[in-house]
Amino acid sequence: MELIWYVLLGLFFGTYLVLGGYDYGVGLSLARNADPGRRRAALNAVGPFFLGNEVWLVAAVGILFGAFPVLEGELLSGFYPAVLGALAGVILVTAGVQLRSRPAHERVRARWDRVVVVGSALAALGWGALLAGLLQGVPRDTDGHVVGLTHLVTPFAATAGLAMVALVAAHGATFLTLRLPADDAARTGRLARRLLPVALAAIGVATVVGLLSERVRATAQQPLAGVLLPVLLVAALVVARAALTRGRAGVAFTATAVALALPVALVGATLWPYVLVSTTDPGASLTVADAAASAPTLRLLGWLAMPLLPALLGFQLMCWWVFRGRTDGRAPVYW
Amino acid sequence: MDTLLLARLQFATTTSIHFLFVIVTLGLVTLLVGLQTAWVITGKQKYERLTRFWGQLYVINYVLGIATGIVMEFQFGLNWSGLSRYVGNVFGAPLAIETLVAFFLESTFLGMWIFGWHRLRRGVHLALLWGVALTAYASAFWILVANSWLQNPVGYEVRDGVAHLTDFPALLGNPTLTMAFGHVVSAALLVGGMLMAAVSAGHLIRRTPDHALHRTALRIGLVTAALSITLVQGFGFAQFGPVGAVQPTKFGGGDEAQAMIGEWTARFGPGDYTPPALASAGLGFMITIGLTLGALWLLVPLLWRDWIIRLRFPLWLLLLALPLPFVATILGWIAREVGRQPWVAYGLLPVDQAVSPVGAPVMLTSLIGFSLLLGTLAVTNWVLIARHAARGAQDPALGRPPGQSIHLRTEPAFT
């Protein structure tokens, strides 16, 4: 039962990184775009999906609270600075994207767009650092509290945060290549082809720094997964680059989407059977089973929420289906 | 400054801002459902224009509801990790259900509704708004289930110092839930109705174009507000019985409160178990405002032959009274939440055991950072709502027919 919920938690957070990831990638692309019309077109390419994308985060935290209450408290308060940064980023993007077109002046809109850029970078940095923080273990003592904040300040967390920024930037550009009208997609396609090697390099650096870190090596419970999944990640990015060169934007987007989901799988698989590995006291490490809510709660959630999951997914699919294809003159413009 | 006080201040700030926006969301979406349904059934252009105008104000307002809502959700873990540790098995369940069953769908539907004009069939588009409204109500319900559990913990047993769920239906039948849900929902309708009436009154005072349109909205808003204030009062007073029975210390002394405090002193050791006077003050002022707003009924007869517009001063009254329901809403929340002190979960978990073991400087940074961020966003949002409300119903961006061909480089098409 715990395993099902753990997988669901991973699925929801992973899907959030994939879907929210292109929101933030598109957000970052605004920084490189001087033309107001193009900036607006990019945001409206995300348009109808935007609200449906970020709810995956809200749902993931809901599952975290409902099914893994102990982990929720330790994870969020134990990684306070990373969560704070990510959260501020999410808020800025949410507000920026939805409000930027309400004022009529281009200057005001450009200011909002800068808010979106900063928010996107913060969100990606924060989530990257959080995932890295899980991989390098936490100073959790026997009474079950994560002590201090400085445990997060490591080269690995920094490089992983930056790698996440590079990854979402490439993912966002690939999304725009798939979604914008064909003649504009060529521009973003070039951008994506330039960003993918940067993301590859950043992932490479983060992986090497991680492998060199003694803390990370000590924390990894399943070293095989810890090596295999980064290799898959690199492979996904190589596939994306090749697909873009051949003009196969759909394949490229699928590959970058896989690349964004993989870090979550990496953390889950490498730490298994733990979710929080203590660096100070091996006895204080938290297993998935211990982190989960007690059986009656999980049963209740199973009865109430599980039957609705197909509906949740169904309505998201409906949204993707209704607004499929490239944006064109007939697409509504609102953001 | 200690961490506990800072964490409480942050929660109070975020919750208050959150509540000011979600109460409008809940009220307006109900009115919007009515407007769009009327449009689909009658086919009258008047209702289409009202749906677009009020829909746009609703969508702008929604932004801050989500933004603050996300902060709220994270705050439980960031600042109140003891809450999830000791009572997460019970308290977490309704919150998880809310995010999965209600909010997730609400946002998905709303995204499709905003971008679905001229693209989806009218029936489907209307169904999406109904979906948004129903999930919004479901959301309010589950959040109040969670909150009511904090007011009056039921359906659990404590084993090894941790609460475990034993009886979920008890959470749904919590005496602090039923009337409070009615109270909050009717307060939302009151806020929505008064907002609609006040904005329309502003247009009628300024004699802007679209007289007929704003006249209709004024009538809808006023009647909704008048009906809801009666419900607000009814559900409000109906709460005294059940709340007094399970939370005797909430609104001042009495023998039962003394007995309760004696019991707590025996179980948890000596301490200050009376809530701050702020709770009772909040309650008193809220009731004053609630009774004053009962005067809305005096304006209803003036709808006859448009006397309300011809006399003009009733329009000013409606406009000037707009802050009142918002103030009352916050006061009500203060009464409910401060009245729970010093407990997170009444009689079960004190606040000082629930707060995260985070240093005061970090908590202060978080408090200042989020208060500034959300405060600035809230003010910006209200300015935007006010401007769009004042601009009137000429061609709102929401539901604007797409141009023949939107070239990316011709910017003026997108104002």
TrEMBL record, chain A:
InterPro entries: Cyt-d_oxidase_su2 (IPR003317)
Topology term for the membrane: Multi-pass membrane protein
A biological-process GO annotation: aerobic electron transport chain
Subcellular location: Cell membrane
Gene Ontology CC entries for this record: cytochrome complex; plasma membrane
Statement: the UniProt record of this protein carries the keyword Transmembrane helix: yes
GO molecular function, one term: electron transfer activity
Superkingdom of source: Bacteria
Main location, first listed in the record: membrane
Keywords per UniProt: Cell membrane, Membrane, Transmembrane, Transmembrane helix
Family membership: Belongs to the cytochrome ubiquinol oxidase subunit 2 family.
Protein name: Cytochrome d ubiquinol oxidase subunit II
Protein species of origin: Micromonospora avicenniae
Lineage: Bacteria, Bacillati, Actinomycetota, Actinomycetes, Micromonosporales
Automatic annotation (TrEMBL), chain B:
InterPro entries per the UniProt record, alphabetical: Cyt-d_ubiquinol_oxidase_su_1 (IPR002585)
UniProt entry tagged with the keyword Transport: yes
Record keyword Metal-binding present: yes
Pfam families: Cyt_bd_oxida_I (PF01654)
Protein name, UniProt field: Cytochrome d ubiquinol oxidase subunit I
GO biological process: aerobic electron transport chain
PANTHER family assigned: CYTOCHROME BD UBIQUINOL OXIDASE SUBUNIT 1 (PTHR30365:SF15), CYTOCHROME D UBIQUINOL OXIDASE (PTHR30365)
Membrane topology of this protein: Multi-pass membrane protein
GO MF term (any one): metal ion binding
Keywords, comma-separated and alphabetical: Cell membrane, Electron transport, Heme, Iron, Membrane, Metal-binding, Transmembrane, Transmembrane helix, Transport
Superkingdom classification of source: Bacteria
